Each structure stands twice: as C-alpha cells, then as structure tokens.
Amino acid sequence: MSARVRRAVPDDGDALAALAAITFPLACPPGSTRESQQAFIATVLSPERFAEYLADPARTLLVAHDDAVPQPVGYTMLVEGEPADADVRAAVRLHPTVELSKCYVLPGHHGQGIATLLMAATIDAARRTGAAGVWLGVNQLNLRAQAFYRRAGFEVVGTKQFLVGDRLEDDFVLERAAARGGDRHGRRLSGGAAGQPASPRTRSRTVSAIHGASEPAKASAARRWSRAVRERRVAMTYVASPAPHTLRSIATLSSVPASPSAAARSCSSSA
C-alpha cells in the first residue's frame, strides 16, 4: 500500500464534506448529542463551507490518499492569523502562529501510518507560511487524539471551551514549534523509538477512572493519561513527488509499525 498527501483544490469540496461528516461524530465525547453534532456539521462542515475554506487564502487544506481507494481518506486544515479566542491568546507562546483547525483520518485507515504522514506534511505546510508555532484544540476526554498529538511534538499549554451545536465542550490547547522536528520550545525531537507507550496497567486505571467518575474527575484522568503517554517516533522516508499539488509522498508504508492511536480524532474543529 502507498499513500500520499497533496494540497486540496476546489473540486475537493464535496469529498471533504463527506469525509468530515463521517469523522467528526466519531471524535466527539460521550456526552455530545447527535443533534449537536449534526448542527455543527450543517453549519461548519457542509460542502458550502468547505468551498469557502478552499477559497480563503488564509487557509491551507491538505488531503491524504490511500492509492487503493479513489476518495481522500484524511484531511487537515491550517488557519493563519492570531487566535480570536482570549483563552488561546493567553496560552500560546510562539508568534506568528497558525491553527491546526482540523485533523482527521477515516477509521478504516487508522494504524497504517497515514495520520503520521499527514501530520508531517501539515507541519511542513505550517512552516512554509512563516509561522513560528502551531496550536490546536483537543477535547479533554479525547485521550487517543492527545496521545497522537504528543507524539507529533505538541504539548498542553492551556484550556479553552468549544461550542458543538448548543453544548460547550472543554478542550486542551496544545502547541508546538513549526520548526522541522521541533516541540513547542523549538527543541528537536529525536528519531526512532524514544520510549514506550503507557503500560496496559496505567491505561486500565485511567480508562476505569474516566468511565466511572464525575466530569471534573474525567478531566483530571485525561490529564494524567496525557502525562503517562511517552513519546514514540515512527521513522518514515519521504521522497519528492512531481505530481501537481503533492507536498510529500512516501515510498511505502508497508514497513511502518502500526500505532494504536495513529489518527488524531479531535472534536475541537473550529471553523
């Protein structure tokens, strides 16, 4: 199997909306209602809205392809400019900054290295905008996404709230440097294995705490889980591609170790 990432074009609008309609609900926390999710999709993730995003020079949308299927299997969206949210402005430290507003991969393509490839191309695109840092919001109960983002060099720098339909959700604000291979401090992340994931015992304790606790305790458990997850880098070899709109291509994904949380699934996709 091979995969590639390219810059989205106006003709991708309908496919991106269809992809977003599938992936967004899967990322939402248990307390999020179907009505709230559908309201968000209708107002923020519709084909019409994606047409606007694709026409906006301040936004960069990338799509990931698995060559075995015709439609995109993942996408990201970067939004240039200083954050409008006061909590985010207070949290981020690297300026100028760019928001990683959306980052999703279809569930059938998790664990194949596609999300890692997509994230690498997205950070590369962020750096090309001239940004010093990249920030994002992730739901405090979305432990799998948090683990993925930590491996990609992001660190928790604050909190904010995010409106899904008529329901406010609690998010962490994460940040990293846009410099190649850096964390939010600009320190270079080492290649190859850099530790191991949290042990099954730690995962079991954390999951039990989350499912049986109050909302504040759930948030506390999510923070403990984020701290427990250790960095694990995946070595991948990129090759240049002459194809139009293609930023990076990977020669093969067949030898890439599968990750238990290879795709970011954040319910914190702002417009």
TrEMBL record:
<dbReference type="InterPro" id="IPR050832">
    <property type="entry name" value="Bact_Acetyltransf"/>
</dbReference>
<dbReference type="InterPro" id="IPR000182">
    <property type="entry name" value="GNAT_dom"/>
</dbReference>
<feature type="region of interest" description="Disordered">
    <location>
        <begin position="183"/>
        <end position="221"/>
    </location>
</feature>
<keyword id="KW-0808">Transferase</keyword>
<dbReference type="Pfam" id="PF00583">
    <property type="entry name" value="Acetyltransf_1"/>
</dbReference>
<dbReference type="InterPro" id="IPR016181">
    <property type="entry name" value="Acyl_CoA_acyltransferase"/>
</dbReference>
<keyword id="KW-0012">Acyltransferase</keyword>
<feature type="domain" description="N-acetyltransferase">
    <location>
        <begin position="3"/>
        <end position="179"/>
    </location>
</feature>
<protein>
    <recommendedName>
        <fullName>N-acetyltransferase domain-containing protein</fullName>
    </recommendedName>
</protein>
<dbReference type="GO" id="GO:0016747">
    <property type="term" value="F:acyltransferase activity, transferring groups other than amino-acyl groups"/>
</dbReference>
